[in-house]
Amino acid sequence: MTNEKREQNDQKVTVVALLMVCAMMISILAACGGGKNNEAGSSSSPPASGSSTQSASPSESSEAPKDITLQFWTISLSPNFDDYINGRIKKFQDENPGVTVKWTDLPYDAMEQKLLVSIAGGNAPDVVNLNTGMTMTLAGKNALVDMNAEATEEQRSIYFETLYNSAKLGDGVYAFPWYYGLSAFMYNKEIYEKAGLDPNKPPTTWEELRQHAVTIKEKTGKYGFVPTYNPPADLYFSGVPVISEDKKKIVINTPEALEWVKWNKALYDEGIVPKESLSADANYATDKYQSGQIATLTTGAAFLSRVKTNAKKIYDNTLVAEMPVLKSGKYHAGLMNLVVPVKSENHPEAIALANFMTNDESQLEFCKIVNILPSTKKAAADPFFTQGGDDAESKAKIITVKQAAKAQDFTLGVKDEGKILEPLWKNWQKMLLGDITPEEYLSQSESAAQKILDEVNAAK
Amino acid sequence: MFTNKLMRRQAIFAYLILIPGIIMLLIFTFYPIVRGLPLAFTDYSVVDTTHWTGWKNFKRAFSDPIFGAALKNSLIYIVVVPFLQIISILMAILVNNKLRFVQFFRVAYFVPVVTSMVAAAIAWKWVYEEQGILNYFLMEFGILDEPISFMVETKLALMGVMIVTVWKGLGFYMMIYLAGLQSIPTEMQEAARIDGANRWRVIWHITIPLLMPFVLLCSLLSVMGAIQVFDEVFVMHGSLGDPAYSTLTTSVYSYRIAFTDFEFGYSAALGLLVAIIITIISIAMFRFTRKGGLTYYE
Amino acid sequence: MSDASVSRASRRPIRSEKWSGKKVLQAIILYPLLLLTTVITLGPFLWLLSTALKTGENVYAYPPQFIPNPITFQNFIDVFNIMPLWDYIGNTVVMTTLGVLLNLSLCALTAYPLARLRFPGRNAIFFTMVSTMILPNAAGMIVNFLTIQSLGLYNSLMGVVLPSAISIFNVFLLRQAFITVPNDMELSARIDGAGEFRIFASIMVPMIRPAIATVVIFDFMAFWNSLIWPVIVLDDKAKYPLGPALRYLNSNLAFNFPYIAAGTIISVIPIIVIFLILQRQFINGMVGAVKG
């Protein structure tokens, strides 16, 4: 490198370096300036106020002190359901002058973190969309409003009682049930025919389902179905109490339980279901079904729309029947709920919004755009659910609604439910893998869960 | 040459340009740690009232079999370090050649680093599944008669995640080594080669020793990264480390304890215990390598 | 194989030919190696690319279809239609530029004294920094959120960028690079009477250009791909960067794998472009400069 060149380079680099430092200084100044601006902005609202006023523009809150802004958080509904949610919010705002709803939709896995951090920052949202597990954990930490105590009888009465009570902890109920999905039995006609089975005779019991699966495996080499295990709920719906009436004893080591566990173990060992069923979820099952690798789809009917977009041929070949029922005669409903955090500043308005979003009209409209089921009695009775075309989706809708009367979510109704039930999940995998026997599964899980339950009860 | 005056001038200059960085570190790195440490002795849950609990969290950690399993997996994970370092050094040397299309290869090796973990996980699951591409090839070539579920076998699942870590990390370390190689004066290598030393001798006797500061830095970083591995496990096997805790690592466990069970206090205690283990390993590495990559410029 | 190359080369009398002969052999050995590595590193990514270009039915076909037939760009078009992707890309560019500039300047300024200047407290500062890489940060997200909130930066771009304005990893990397700069360059500059800042800016920084390029790439990548923190700090979805926005494609009620694949490709392309640009500007420039 010549000297001249180096000189030039040096100059260039000096300039770049100076620019960098300047940029840094400017950005730091901007940061401080921004801070001041924002502080000035929020100082016009009362300092004690939490989320609601902070997000309201200062002019609004100073001119009309009655005005309220509600923060409404949902999980993964945008952008697919933007129009629906915005439409409902507009209607709510029209009916409740002075109330503004600020909707934030969060990606699925960001919800818990954002929620916790916001609560820590005194910036709690007013209405939040949570699944039952998360609802119960938060309720156990006294973070949610008890609907039995603060909502009106009128607000509470619109829901199916079983669904409403799935968020019950002690005497309190900490959520309004929103939408849920039920499994329907969806199956590939072509594979059924290839296996020499009559597509017009879908299985009506789990044992029949097993026999079909065996035939399908033998004749076509494909799997009959993918079980998406939920051991606590599966046991419960097989007629195992799981927890005693007084919520003090874990009861899973029963003959019914052993039968169910052994039945599953045999399925797994004989290779009638894929090895990956161990940790399979509905996504996995749907992917395999729509690639034609599996004969039946036993997940929520909402997944059928995915099959329709991704694999039209398979969809056109899909027949729908009622899901075989477990011993209890009930179906498991995986619920989405709306909750109101205790830290919300506007309990009555927030409860009203949660109630509005889950009322008959809102839910019916929601169900019309996506294949889910309503948690309110009147909405479920709407003729929409009993009429429809001949395509698989309409049939699935009609069938799941028929099943809805037997639907229930499963919860223990005690604090720290997730922790108590964890041994049932983890030992289930160990049992399928052959590390422990079905008998050991039940006895070990029972004692492990009992130990955690005792700790939880003692901590009260 | 080095007068007192110069020393003082240097010191003042040093402090001056350190200020902005140190301030940011104080606010966003030191402060959270200082605030977070005492939590290990409480039952802080963010939402509920907090109590002082003394050593309870630590006692619980020592009798927590799940933490034990997670710790074991985290330590096993260190196995990725030699693979990561050796292969990435070789890759860096490979693409440091003046070859046609070398740009393309550099990009190709770097792509895994920039691919989001969510997408990479989907791709790798597709590789590992029972009806996945790996089984497809193994059976086509007659190596296997029956497919293996790489995602489900407890003995293979962790290894599968480790392969993803290596796959995703190679390009990253390759870049660091490449930067290191570029700053080694090429004259030295060429002189040696002209003197008749063959390629591998040049690499072994000249390139590697000069890269040593980078090697030690990268090894230390990747050991820390391995023990604290999170993303790969979380997106491929969930917060429970399926199957049957066989892929659960300490970071994933303490994340779950904090954000799903809301036990930040216990989570902080677990973090502290892991930190102590990392410190011990780091000190051992220092001792072992003597003049490690973190020694001072003199 | 290297032995063979040496013996074969030594038989050649003329120097230039010896080198070219070696080069051919080198190419024969190297290219297969390079290609094999490419297959492994690029494989999963190519599969995502091929998925993004497939029509719905072929995505889930088994046995898998490797080369899409027919090829469609519909998935890309759809992704741009279902969300205001250009806005998110704009946000990401602003956030990333700001973040990279801040991070690079702060890290370089912090790394240099730790590498090459003598001053009391250097060891202490350095070891404190090392320790932060090890110490647990269980409540880090919460504490940083509270700090950002009290600075009045909630729901602002600055709030997203500031906590990562300096990263100890990059400080390490740059420090390591500063250390490798030969002493004589510094000495001769001192003899010429250059001041401290001039030595830093016009001797040291240019010497570590490869490391700087690396840091810029890593930074760019980190900011471009940041997922959780922007969601925590930002309240308006309209302000989101690309990463979190693309995660909406992964929603439960409407999961569409080709969209996710297309989204991934879209988000990776800018990083590759930056990578290529920096490669040319820094690394090749450096090699050329030293040789010239």
Task: Summarize the structure in words.
Chain C: Residues 89-278 form the ABC transmembrane type-1 domain. Chain C: It is a multi-pass membrane protein. Chain C: Keywords: Cell membrane, Membrane, Transmembrane, Transmembrane helix, Transport. Chain C: This is Sugar ABC transporter permease. Chain C: InterPro entries: MetI-like, MetI-like_sf. The complex is a heterotrimer of chains A (460), B (298) and C (292). Chain A contains 22 helices and 14 strands. By secondary structure, chain A is of the alpha/beta class. In chain A, α13 (255-269) packs across α22 (438-459) and α21 (417-433) packs antiparallel against α22. The longest helix of chain A has 41 residues, at 3-43. Chain B has 13 helices and no strands. Chain B is flat. With 292 residues, chain C is mostly helical. Chain C has a domain at 85-237: MetI-like fold (Orthogonal Bundle). Chain C contains 15 helices and no strands. Chain C starts with a helix and ends with a helix. The chains are: A alpha/beta (460), B mainly alpha (298), C mainly alpha (292).
